[in-house]
Amino acid sequence: GKKLNLNQKNNAKQGASLKKEQKQIFKGFGIMSTGLTTHQSKKLKAMLVDTGATLIKDTEDAKRYDDMVVVTSRPKRTMKALFYYARGLIPVSVKWVKKCLDARQQVQIQVEDLHCIPGTTDDFLAAVISRECAIPLPVKQRVLHGVSLVLPQSMSDWVGVVREAGANPISVKDDSQNLMKGDTMYILCIDR
Length: 192
Known about the structure:
This protein has seven helices and five strands; from the N terminus they run αβαβαβαααβαβ. The protein has 192 residues and is α/β, with parallel strands linked by helices. The strands form two sheets. It has a three-stranded parallel sheet, with helices on both faces. It has a two-stranded parallel ribbon with strand order 4-5. β4, α7 and β5 form a beta-alpha-beta unit.
C-alpha cells in the first residue's frame, strides 16, 4: 500500500478538524427554506450537510425548534416566511449561510443578509439583528399577543401563523352569521 507522507497526514488531520468545526456551526438549529428554485434548494441542502442543522420541511415541523432560520432568495410572503415573521424574525439570504460556512461559525447578521417584506421598520430590523436572527421573541412580546382572532374555516392554513404571532385563533364556519365572541371581535384581513 501507499504510505502518506507527513504533509499529507497533517492535511488529512486539518481536513478532519475543519469538518468537525463545520458540524458545529448550526448544531441544534432547524433550517427551513422558502421561495428557492429546485436548484437553489439542492445547493443549500448540500451546503448544510455537515453543519449539524436539521432541515425543516414545513411550519408544523418548525414549531419544535426554538432556534430556527428561514433561508430565502428574496423577500417572500409564503407561509414559511410569515411563520418566521410571526416569531419576530426575518428570513436570511443564502449569502449569510455561505458567510457562516466560510468563517466556520455563525457570523453577525447584517441588514443586507435579511430579506424584509415592504413595511418592515428600522426598529424591527435592529431588534432582529440584536437577537442574532434566530432567537424568536418570547410569545408575550409578539405582535398579536393577547388578541383573539376570528378566522373563517377557509383560512385554516393561517392558524399556525396567527398562533406563532401570539394570538388565540378562533375558527368559525364561513357562513356563520355571528362572528362575535364576548364583547370584542377581531378579524384578520389578508391582502393576498
